[in-house]
Amino acid sequence: MHHVLMISAGFFHPPSTGRLHLWRGLTRTPDVRLHHASSLDALIGIQPGALSAVVLYYHRRKLSSAALAALDRFARVGGGILAVHSATASFKETPAYFDILGGKFTGHPPVGRMEIRSISESDAVFGAIPPFTVTDEAYRHDLRSDIQVHFVAQCKRPEDGQLPVVWTRRHGAGRVCYVGPGHRAASLRHPCVVQILQRGLAWVCAAGEEAVP
């Protein structure tokens, strides 16, 4: 059983109903037991191996140096991180935080309909998920060069082009996955988004298993 800490807070951004839909979707991930905290400070003092992964879904401004160090250490020794939507728009004055997640929010087109598609017919992490459409907020990011993009979004306005909305990377012995939809609660109920979140969580949880003989 993988114990996963969902660190989430917010009423409007992220929406409280979105947090509920995310919780419900992730609890259906096989072999996962979810726990909740409202701040990254909850990671301070966590013993290695106590958690398989953390889920980050919030929009915060201040991050303590102790919490940042705890998140970095957690991933480096084999913990998984699933970051959702506004996690990459938080803590804008803390570059080391974005080095962990793999991307920093720089702006977004207007909220609108966008088609999300896999860049591979059968992705090694997410499997075969057909193109689908949601109405949400697609973020632009400054991205690390070592991320692997799995899904892109084609926004309504042609000038916005295609934006990476799901990516993965390694951080030390740990695994990181970012999933972009989540500005609107309805996106987190879409069957394809739920599948991406569940498979992304399963993938990041498996990081610790790589070290097992």
Number of DSSP E strands:
11
Query: What is the SS-derived class?
Result: alpha/beta
Q: Count of helical segments?
A: 4
The averaged pLDDT comes out at 93
Largest sheet: 9 strands, mixed
How are the SSEs ordered, and which strands pair?
Elements: E1 2-8, H1 16-27, E2 32-37, E3 53-57, H2 65-76, E4 80-84, H3 95-101, E5 103-107, E6 112-118, E7 132-136, E8 140-143, E9 148-155, E10 162-171, E11 174-179, H4 191-205
Parallel strand pairs: 1-2, 1-3, 3-4, 4-11
Antiparallel strand pairs: 5-8, 6-7, 6-9, 9-10, 10-11
Tell me what you see in this structure.
With 213 residues, the protein is of the alpha/beta class. It is 22% helix and 32% strand. The chain has a single domain (2-107, 164-211), classed as Class I glutamine amidotransferase (GATase) domain (Rossmann fold), CATH 3.40.50.880. It contains four helices and eleven strands. The strands form two sheets. It has a nine-stranded mixed β-sheet, with helices on both faces. It has a two-stranded antiparallel ribbon with strand order 5-8. It is globular and about 45 Å long. The relative contact order is 0.19. The mean pLDDT is 93.
